[in-house]
Design a protein that fits this description.
Elements (H helix, E strand, L loop, with lengths): L2 H23 L14 E8 L9 H16 L7 E8 L4 H13 L4 E3 L6 H11 L3 E2 L14 E2 L4 H14 L4 E7 L2 H4 L1 H11 L6 E5 L7 H10 L5 H6 L6 E5 L5 H14 L5 E5 L5 H6 L11 E4 L10 H10 L11 H17 L10 H10 L32 E8 L2 E4 L6 E2 L1 H5 L6
Parallel strand pairs: 1-2, 1-3, 3-4, 4-5, 6-7, 6-8, 8-9, 9-10
Antiparallel strand pairs: 10-11, 11-12, 11-13
Helix pairs in contact: 2-12, 2-13, 3-4, 5-7, 8-10
Length: about 425
Amino acid sequence: MTDWRRAATLSRTFLATAMGACLAVGCGAVPGGSGGPGDTLTVMTFAPEGTKATNMPGMTAMAKAYERWVNSKGGINGRKLRVLTCNEHNTPAGAADCARKAISEKAIAVVGSYSQHGRAFMAPLEAEGIPFIGGYGVSSEEFQSTLSYPVNGGQPVLLAGAGHQLGRACGQVSIVRPDTLAGDSMPVLLNAGLKANKAPEASDIRAAEDTADFSSQAREALADTAGASAKDKDKDKEKEKGCVTAVLGERTETFFDAFRRAAAEKQRKPQISSVLGSVSQALVNRTGGKESPFEGAYLTSWYPVSNDPLWDPMRKVISEHSFGDDGVDPDDSGAQTTWIAYTVLGEVVKRFKDDEDITARKVARMLNQSEKIQTGGLTPDLSWRYQDMRAVAGFPRIVNGQVTFQIVQSGRLVTQPGEDSMDMTPTLEQAPRAA
């Protein structure tokens, strides 16, 4: 047989095999796209798991529970949802790998994910036009990229809110935070809230992200918050005490354990505080409930308290569709953020026509042009049109600056008496650039 005949025969054999395989599995729809009801929409959720620093397994677990729930109802407007999950490993390489996987699987969006390595994952997603919906808000790129659609104000509004909360009660504040690029902006943001309440700037105490020994930071924080001067005490009796806030993710518990011992040695009890994600109801439960060292702690959150009836739909989905997945905790801020992000995705998909092809670029276009999206009262109505952007230096994509102020009472996170939810955007607009 001549070479050209052999090649022709092989070509025909390959074509027949490919056509047979296509008939068997039903080719015709591009993975991740949708030509109409009955087709599949592919999305991804990524978060770090099993690392020595912050871990967010509840986010990917919540995404899979949402997938099972929405598909049990026939999908979103008849379109089946396929959720890919990826371990981001808390490294730039891991974040980039997850983004590349989303691209290779032709995901129409990355939804409800966590990474502090915004540069690593946003650039690949931007190149392919894949929107990033409802990230946790820990990287500055989430509030800068035109393909990012945040559902909360991230670390910026939490820290500005913490400054507001502490500025009303404290003579001096210390912040203990990770010695990372993401951590470098934290004191600036906290100070914005303190300044709005005419409080002095916080002492900035750094710690290695993966350290297990916070004894030196505990001693430094205790020394820095020895209390207001006698002159200040006479001027403002309500601001006599020193306050310590720690924003260290999963290491927050370890720090406050060291701090509690250091404070006991000096027979002092400064006010302690933190933000959503570093302290949670699950942490309070695990450390003793009513006897927890976090009893009386201040907390700034994006969302209503976890026992608010507004969370009931999410709790129902978790109880019915997270079987075999112990990572889903309805009190977890990561799971809550992912739930809200998928709520946004569902509302956006419903705005397409039944027979319309859905692609990543079309989802982004819809998000850029759509009227406000409701999240069941868990956030203000959300919209990312140009006119919705705010003049926050370094964080122009913040469209929801809302925070709630909470306190640990009798082992439960409850709304802080006398403190209504507050939009921190005006405070951040007056702050110096922090990213």
